[in-house]
Structures are given as C-alpha cells and as structure tokens.
Amino acid sequence: MDGKKTCAACKISKKPCTDSCPIKPFYPDPHEDYDDINEVFSVEHLKDWLKKTTDEQKQNLIEALAWESGIRKQDPISGSFGVYKKICEENLQLKVEQKLSKMKIETLEGKIAAISEEHFNLWVEAEELKKKASSS
Ligand SMILES: [Zn+2]
C-alpha cells in the first residue's frame, strides 16, 4: 500500500495517513460516501465499529453506514426508518390491491361460468326443439 497517499479521513483531519490507518482500505481517496458517514456518524464511531468487526464484516459495515448516512442526509427526521415505513406501506397497499384483484377475478369467473351455463342450456333447448321439429 502506498504509505504516502492520504485517505479520506486523514485528509479531512489533516493528519498523516499510515498503512495502519483503518479507513484507508475503504476510502483511500476523498469520497462523498465517506463525507456522509463522517457527518452522520463521525469518524470516531466508524473507527470504533471497524475495531469491533471481523475483516469479513468490515466491507458490509462500510456499505451499510454509507447507505444509512446517505438516507439520513436526505431525510434528517426519519432516516432509514422512514424508508422502512414507506416500504411497509407500499407492501400493505400491494396486498390490498392483490386481494381486490383476486376478488375481481373470482367475480369475472363467476360471470363466465353463469354465461357458459346459460349458453349451454340454450343450446340444449335448441337441440330439443330441432328434434321435435324433425320428428313431427
Ligand atoms: Zn488515513
């Protein structure tokens, strides 16, 4: 790793960046996602969380914090919870629409069945009339 390169965190804090810098592997250069994480969660929390995660979890942590901080910046009041609530409401609306569609399909199938039965009965009646007409 290039020890002279300064990561996003060290560049902001104007500190020398070393190869042991915990932020460097994820944000070797200034990046908007890092700025969001720093603004919403602070670099101290990010470093603390990185210490508490395994190497396999670190990339997932970074991605989650970038997503959450981006959402929090867009909606400072509701943040990720607002996104969750919106998706729950959309899911509920889709379930209602699905139920209404199912009811409409059942109604149409009932009408089709009634029309088919009526059509069949008329056909039987016509066939009986033809038989009577030909035998008389
Ligand atoms: Zn650094």
TrEMBL record:
Residues 5-105 form the LOB domain. It holds the Pfam family LOB. Coiled coil: none annotated. Belongs to the LOB domain-containing protein family. This is LOB domain-containing protein 2-like. It comes from the Eukaryota. PANTHER family: LOB DOMAIN-CONTAINING PROTEIN 2 (PTHR31301:SF19), LOB DOMAIN-CONTAINING PROTEIN 4-RELATED (PTHR31301).
